[in-house]
Design goal:
about 180 residues, about 50% helix, single chain, alpha/beta
Length: about 180
């Protein structure tokens, strides 16, 4: 688990978000922020991808406060990105891990587990997503049966075009096996 101190500008940015909150808020985080901060991938990211898990008014407050184009975004160059179109495994919230526990008074950053993190990138499948997935598969290392099982049971039923994602998953599994081979 990473230390309580985040690198700048994240520490100052998230501290200001925390100081602006009147109640506890959980952010369910995934994407490059989690891959870099929790799993150590050396690449930059300027946003925290968040699944809207808070109530609507708290979410709107956070978008206004710290979303893209906000005053905090202009000040620090980073922002919260409430992602509403990502497909995520059905029970991802049962496997969240708290990042930087105790670093903030009211803000809790909860990270997707590595399999859910990879699967949340499956549908978009751009080069950065494939690179992140391969990094996670090497770092954890992935048990491919867990990845495939979670895809079949928790993600595939939610997808609009599961046949396309079946192919993408097969290609990802082949890439992981090639890396491991």
């Amino acid at each position: 688990m990473p230390s309580k101190q985040l690198p700048e500008p994240w520490q100052s940015f998230l501290s200001q978000v925390d100081d602006s909150l009147s109640d506890e808020v959980e952010l369910h985080c995934f994407g490059g922020f989690v891959v870099t901060m929790l799993y150590g991938l050396a690449r930059s990211t300027v946003d925290v991808d968040v699944v809207p898990a808070t109530n609507r008014s708290a979410g709107q407050f956070l978008i206004t406060l710290a979303g893209k184009g906000s005053e905090l975004h202009r000040k620090y160059g980073v922002y919260l990105d409430f992602v509403t179109i990502a497909s995520v495994p059905e029970d991802y919230d049962q496997r969240l891990t708290e990042m930087f526990q105790g670093a903030f008074k009211r803000l809790r950053l909860l990270a997707f587990d590595p399999y859910d993190l990879a699967l949340a990138k499956l549908e978009r499948n751009i080069q950065r997503d494939r690179d992140d997935m391969k990094y996670l598969a090497r770092t954890i290392p992935f048990d491919l049966e867990v990845l495939k099982d979670r895809y079949q049971k928790e993600l595939r039923p939610l997808l609009g075009n599961p046949e396309r994602e079946d192919l993408t998953l097969r290609l990802w599994v082949e890439a992981i096996e090639e890396d491991q081979g």
